[in-house]
Amino acid sequence: MDLNGFNGAWLIQPALWAAAAIALVILPRASKIFRYIPNNQVGIVEKLWSTSGSIEGGFIALNGEAGYEPDVLRGGLHVFFPFMYRIHKSDLVTVGQGKIAYVFARDGAPLLPSQVLGANDTEDRADFQDVRRFLLGGGQKGPQRKILREGTYAINTTQFAIITDERVYGHALSGQERSVLDAMQLTIAERWGFTPVVLAADHDLVGVVTVHDGPSLPSGEIIAPEVGTDLRDDEIFHNNFQEPEKFLAAGGYRGRQLQVIVEGTWYINRLFATVEAVPKTVIPVGNVGVVIFYTGPHSDDVSGEQYRHGELVLNGGRGVWKDPLLPGKYAFNTYAGKIEIIPTVNFILKWVRGEVGAMKLDENLSEISLITRDAFEPTLPLSVVMHIDYKKAPMIIQRFGDVKKLVEQTLDPMVSAFFKNIAQKMTLIELLQNRAQIQEESAAQMKAKFESYSLDLQEVLIGTPRAAAGDHTIENILIQLRSRQIAREQIETYQEQEKAAVQERALNEAKATAAAQTALTQSLIQIKVNENEGAAAFARAQKDAETRKVTAAAVGEQSRLEGQGEADRVLAVGTANAQSTKLSVDAYGGPEFRLAEQNFAKFAEALTKINQPLVPQFLMSGAQGQESNNAGLIPTAMLSSMFGRMMPDALERLKEEAPRADRRTNGH
């Protein structure tokens, strides 16, 4: 055996095996036969050479040409023909929660001159994860109308650059493309386009939408009409501009839209439409809103034949709406029209410098300058209370533009001229003293003038005329008037004081009366009791008198009868006595003897009744006893004297009685 030959072969064989092993390791890597794609990435396939040649248009090889393949590789191990492909790893596109991503197609059909964004009106054009389908379906290059919502997407970033708020997903971008995409990202960020439109309920805002794609508005139009708002028509209901293709299919125009969006969250492509938040229109209670609309159809005049100051249109038409908006809150597009707030409650216009109402309608009004008949130049502060009928509010806006112009250009000159005319017919004192009369007359006369302007005048309030700054003549007049009035007031004061003194005196009397009220009351009661008792006594007296009268009458009658009887008896007795006496007198020898006989009888009777002894116990005599006879003669003298005086009278009576007795006797 040849040892040398044997050793050489043995040495060469291991080297060959090593070379083969190295080739097996290096050649697959160099030829890129095997490629591994992580699950959080995709593989973008670039064909380095092809028997089909190069791409004629675009840079996505749809027919096996050399270039970028439309399909991406998902996670795993992939085997390729050696030295034919280059694999580019790209991250999956991730859109965060509540975020929006924008798509920029680098290849596809060119945009039309009127287009701003690529159309995605078919399912093929709207599939960004299938490049082949997108391109074969007629997808257009450039920014797309469709947006990407939250989620993770396996997108070929060679064909579609994805713009998010955090980064731009793109492969093999040139410097120019990178600049374009960065600028687009900045524009979207300025429009707050990476987040949805959120109109919170507590902000009371509405969104005015401006569409940047689609056909232009017709000539003469400034606001695009509402389209695609019927929820039942799914083909064109764009749901507040969230589906651009349906909006355009409904006939939507580019430009500011009449339709507004209200509270909610809306995912709107800000490259397609931008949203401006504006406050809602609030018409307070006590006001109405007259709408001046800048768009809408042209309609016939509905103001009537008598109104010749302009036209009113039906609500929704272009012009001044016939019916105002009542109090409430409205999602009104302030770019499509204007709302003039008109007060329907009573409001005051003050012709007073420095005093301005809440609506500032009188901020340019000042006191009215007057010239009186006696050449004084006062200024007159004035207030006017007025009211506007809400149905007439559109007429006022059509005629004057707004209420402030009405006040400054019409009412102010009219009111000023009216009071100037009144002042020049009066003196200053008359102007001061007749203020109430002027106020009443001015209200009546100005009411008709206000009605001609569709206004309802409620009241005119006139203030006190004032002098201009530095003018003291009016003040001097007022001082004189005040002095005169003070004098009158003093006179009235004195008169009132006099009345007060009288009243005070009456009050004091009343107080004294009140203090003695108890006694007074008791006395009044006693008076009343006495009156009642007197009345009772009077009544009793009357009854007693009547009783006595009756009794007296009865007694009188009885007495009369008794007297008559007694008289008859006495007459009979007298007659008998007279006859007896006559006979007795005749028997005694005459009346003197009869009278003496009677006197002695009565004297004897008297002596029997006295206690005096008939015979004296003592005897008075003279010094020598001579007077005893004279003393004893005292009773005798007394009796003689008595009988001597009595006898003539008795005799005369008897003489007179005797004939009468005879006549009575004869009469009987």
Automatic annotation (TrEMBL):
Please state every residue range assigned to the domain named Band. Answer: 282-500
Q: Which Pfam families match?
A: Band_7 (PF01145)
List where the protein spans the membrane.
Answer: 6-27
Protein name from the UniProt record: Flotillin family protein
Which keywords does the record carry?
A: Membrane, Transmembrane, Transmembrane helix
